[in-house]
Design a protein that fits this description.
With about 725 residues, the protein is an alpha/beta fold. The protein has 22 helices and 35 strands. The strands form 8 sheets. An 8-stranded mixed β-sheet has the order 6-5-4-3-2-1-22-23. Strands 7-8-9-10-11-20-21 form a 7-stranded mixed β-sheet, covered by helices on one side. Bound molecules: zinc ion (2 copies).
């Protein structure tokens, strides 16, 4: 059995774990990435596996960082069932459509600019239609019932107490000797409003646990309610409005509940609360439809006719006009509106109309990420820009922590201590410090083996044991200190090893990432040959004598000679980059490189640091071809399929690239000042090895070692 961590590894978003066993592939969650650009890049392009090869998806809950890439999975060929609780399925039908709508509008906005500049239009990751189509593949599950979803795979959902419908997953794999995998999903706190408490699990051979708050403790619930009451009273006494930016799903409903409780207890005066977020309104409707899943307190409240979601004082605005009408009210309202970090959505309008009022209060109840409007307010900005207008900040800015739907360290440990048997723990879904800090605590407390998996890392699981396939096979690989770049080994559809080293830009200390663009140097010629072969094969280029593919000439020049009215790089773009869908690859002039391109390198022998912008003189005024490990693997995959060029043509073209020692393995090498790349593949097994470097050292040795390690498997 194998488990691969394709998201939420040393970060909180993009949860996605691939379990392979008994010839089946099961995906747990398929979430959208957010945060820094290099993570968001993963939302685009291909999955690191073949979507049509996945047999089933198990979804823990509806939050977008767990469900947000499901429509892309379906769009790219996944046809199997998606198992989720009924609440999660209903919530997904609104969340995914909303997410599709956001993708569409964002791309529309970007395309208006691109078209004006004469650039190719972008395609959204997925659309509302894709999201709707995805819903047909949902299979509704109930909590606590064990179901065989595939031969040798049995599944049970348990309540995770995080948001309504959220589940912890128990997955038994195997026939006679079964191994039990447990995925905590996002875990809630004990006594959290509305939802039930998390179910305790007692056994796991392999446990994958979240660690969002693995190193932190929340403000306690009583203190939190008191604090909320104070903020409400103070604002109402000043005659102002109280604005609360909040996530539509979970946080909004918690706030409604808390305000309801405070009102019932007479701790705050009766209020007019406005939910001004269409998504929050719809989510609240789903909550009410599934009231049977509420915790005891909430059910009793509703039975006594005191529903926190429906009262004469709670208003759901529908139209934009209704929302705008709130702008003219100077005081006495509580407005709960998305987004939670105030960087999008209707909350921005309300902030614009209230921030300048001394009587108003902005209450921040969730995490405010760096760079968001919420964070600037939290940091005490005196002026902010909203919709291009400068707004003075006179309102009181308050923060209450602990309105989180995530278990804090205490609650996580409390949940862990109920286990009677744990074989091995993988800590995921937390920022780097949180994952590693919490892993250390688990190890000290429970004395079990704990691993923080890296992105894309995969593990062979033998019963309770988990051996990183990377570690075991590639432990002997010592990439030289001088090496800067990316290495990658893939076999079939999966990544066998991947690592990134050094800096993309020495002057500004920018790290290399898997999305860094590397100059392919003279390997450009390989692409020129592909373009030429394609033109000839399709009969668009009459060539009377056979081409000598092994001739030692500059193939871009040959292309120019044969097609004089078009630049060779434009031909390659049209004949190779576009049809093969190498979305990250493109020609760039060296003085016009995009931000993601690697630049600097060091000449080891002399120790001098050089920026390869100086290569302009050496390379003339030709644009250079830049690409990524992702795209190069894709290229081999398409060439292997045999529909891009007939296999016969491919064979003659590739003959001169035959690796000297491994039969059937082809390698392409490229060099330029400050760049050295080697990428190769066995098209039969689709075994690929890629080494891309923005230096000139240690590339050959890295490649040779990867060949050795990979062959030793
Ligand atoms: Zn969540
Ligand atoms: Zn999450």
């Amino acid at each position: 059995m194998k488990i691969q961590f394709l998201g939420a590894a040393e970060t909180t978003s993009g949860a996605c774990y691939l379990v392979t066993s008994h010839g089946r592939q099961v995906l747990v969650d398929c979430g959208l990435f957010h945060g820094p650009q290099e993570l968001k890049q993963r939302n685009y392009g291909d999955f690191p596996f073949e979507p049509s090869g996945i047999d089933a998806v198990i979804l823990t809950h509806a939050h977008i960082d767990h469900s947000g890439l499901l429509p892309k999975l379906v769009k790219q060929g996944f046809k199997g069932p998606i198992y989720a609780t009924a609440v999660t399925a209903d919530l997904c039908s609104i969340m995914l459509a909303d997410s599709g709508h956001i993708q569409e509008t964002e791309v529309e906005r970007k395309n208006r600019k691109r078209l004006r500049r004469g650039q190719e239009p972008l395609v959204p990751i997925y659309t509302v239609d894709d999201a709707d189509r995805t819903m047909k593949q949902f299979r509704r599950m109930v909590y606590d019932e064990e179901v065989e979803i595939l031969p040798a795979f049995r599944l049970r959902f348990r309540d995770a107490g995080h948001i309504l419908g959220a589940a912890t997953i128990e997955l038994w794999v195997g026939d006679e000797k079964r191994s039990k995998l447990v995925f905590s999903g996002d875990l809630g706190n004990m006594g959290q409003p509305i939802v039930q408490d998390p179910t305790f699990i007692t056994e796991a051979d392999v446990l994958v646990i979240e660690s969002t708050y693995g190193t932190r403790i929340h403000e306690d619930r009583e203190g939190r309610l008191e604090h909320l009451a104070e903020v409400v009273k103070a604002t109402m006494q000043r005659g102002g409005n109280l604005l609360i930016p909040a996530f539509a799903l979970g946080r909004t409903q918690d706030l409604l509940y808390s305000l309801g409780v405070l009102q019932d207890d007479g701790l705050i005066p009766p209020l007019n609360v406005y939910i001004d977020s269409p998504l929050a309104t719809k989510a609240t409707e789903v909550f009410q439809k599934h009231a049977g899943f509420f915790d005891y307190e909430t059910r009793t409240m509703i039975q006594a006719g005191r529903s926190p979601f429906e009262s004469p004082h709670v208003h759901y605005t529908e139209s934009v006009q209704e929302s705008m009408r709130l702008n003219s009210v100077s005081g006495g309202l509580v407005i709960i509106s998305a987004s939670g970090m105030a960087d999008a959505g209707r909350i921005k309008h309300h902030l614009k109309h209230n921030l300048w009022r001394k009587s108003a209060t902005v209450l921040l109840v969730g995490y405010q990420a760096e760079g968001t409007l919420g964070r600037r307010l939290q940091d005490g900005a005196k002026k902010v820009r909203i919709h291009g207008e400068e707004v003075r900040v006179e309102a009181a800015i308050e923060t209450i922590s602990g309105f989180s739907a995530h278990a804090d360290q205490r609650a996580l440990l409390n949940w862990l201590r109920r286990f009677r048997h744990i074989g091995r723990v993988f800590v995921t879904h937390g920022e780097k410090e949180s994952c590693h800090g919490f892993a250390k605590i688990i190890h000290e407390e429970l004395k079990v083996p704990v691993v923080v998996p890296k992105m894309d890392e995969s593990f062979d699981l033998k019963g309770a044991e988990g051996i990183s396939t990377w570690d075991s096979y590639y432990r002997s690989c010592h990439v030289h200190d001088a090496f800067a770049g990316v290495v990658q080994v893939t076999r079939d559809a999966s990544i066998e090893y991947r690592a990134v080293y050094g800096l993309a830009d020495r002057r500004y200390k920018v790290d290399n990432t898997f999305f860094t663009l590397f100059n392919l140097g003279s390997a450009r010629d390989f692409f020129a040959k592909l373009a030429l072969a394609r033109l000839m094969d399709s009969g668009r280029l009459d060539q009377d004598r056979p081409v000598k593919w092994d001739a030692d000439i500059v193939w871009e020049e040959e292309l120019r000679r044969l097609v004089p009215d078009q630049e060779p790089w434009d031909i390659v773009t049209e004949e190779v980059l576009r049809p093969v869908q190498l979305g990250q690859s493109a020609y760039h002039f060296l003085d016009q490189r995009p931000a993601l391109a690697a630049t600097g390198y060091t000449r080891i022998k002399t120790g001098e640091t050089v920026d390869n912008v100086y290569a302009i003189l050496a390379e003339g005024l030709k644009p250079q071809l830049f690409s990524t490990a992702h795209d190069l693997r894709r290229l081999w995959g398409v060439l292997a399929r045999g529909d891009y060029l007939p296999p016969k043509v491919m064979q003659t073209l590739l003959a001169s690239y035959q690796h000297s020692k491994i039969p059937g393995f082809y390698t392409v090498e490229g060099k330029a000042p400050g760049a050295h790349v080697i990428f190769g593949a066995d098209l039969q097994d689709l075994w690929t090895i890629t080494v891309l470097s923005n230096g000139e050292e240690a590339v050959q040795s890295a490649f040779d070692q990867l060949v050795d390690c990979s062959q030793g498997r």
